[in-house]
Amino acid sequence: MSNFLARARVFVSANKTFVAVVIIGVVLVFLTGGGSVVKTVSQQIAYDSDRGIDLPGVPALMLESGGGAVAYNYSDGYSKNGVTSSVAPMPPSYNPNPATPELPSDKKIIKNGSLNLLVKSADSAATLIESIAVSNGGFIQNSDIREVSEGVKSGSVSVRIPSANFTVVMEAIKKIAVKVNWESVNSSDVTAQYVDLEAQLKNYRAEEKQYQDIMVRAVKIDEILNVASRLSDVRGRIERTEGQLNSLSRQVSMSVISVNLTAEPEVKVFGIVWRPLTVVKQAFKSMLTDLAGFVDWLIMFVFKVPVYILRLAVAVLIAFALWRVIVWFKRKFITPANTV
């Protein structure tokens, strides 16, 4: 042990610069880690102080109020801009779960959907879609099925169903497809427009009532004609506004689902139904997915090459430094001992 300590003292005395560099590096690492902890604690204290939370060990809480600094001390009172009072105000309340403003219970939402389906038979699919719509309180709005090639039909079907059953009908229609090529759902909030139209309608009816009262009191022919013209105009505005309101109400209460149907030709080989086009589409989709994944990996690799090079350089530098230290240590201590 004494021999090792003697050699260590000799090593330190002969390599003071190296030992100093190592000690400085250790101290810097420690300070870096400790500094982050101190910074985190300071940020937490500031965060809690901003919300009026009483912190142990912090006697006063500094807040900004009315353009001046206010120092709260719950034992001695408070002071603001140098004026001290014996009555301390309540600290600002902090609610960790602030209440969310309530949304109107009668929001007017127009919700429509579109589907593009691959089916075995367009005719059968259209019939099933109609039955789904009728069973959910809806109806067929339009249907267009046509033969695109010999024995192959395609087309489109639109159904109007109650908005409350929109999700149920969408899921039911998708189940009849061999494959869902794409789907989309569009929602539009028309609450503000609906409220504005109702306000306009109320004003128009009030105006109509005024003209009716004037009409009762009118005596001269020209006055009667003038009031009748204005009354006709306001009644026209009332009818147009009512029409817009009714249209919005129908769109809100009844959703539209448009379905495009595509049937693929069936190829029978020795009595077995074969859908080569479906297989080709699935293979092409799989190829695109794999190709996109490879390109993503290639992009990530290209941008990470500098990082890989830097890591390799650091590893080589560390290995070289260790090798130099080992060689030096061997020459300094082991070789002289063997020589003796």
UniProtKB/TrEMBL annotation:
It comes from the Bacteria. Keywords: Coiled coil, Membrane, Transmembrane, Transmembrane helix. Residues 187-251 form a coiled coil. Residues 107-318 form the DUF4349 domain. InterPro entries: DUF4349. Pfam families: DUF4349. The chain crosses the membrane at residues 18-38, 309-329. This is DUF4349 domain-containing protein.
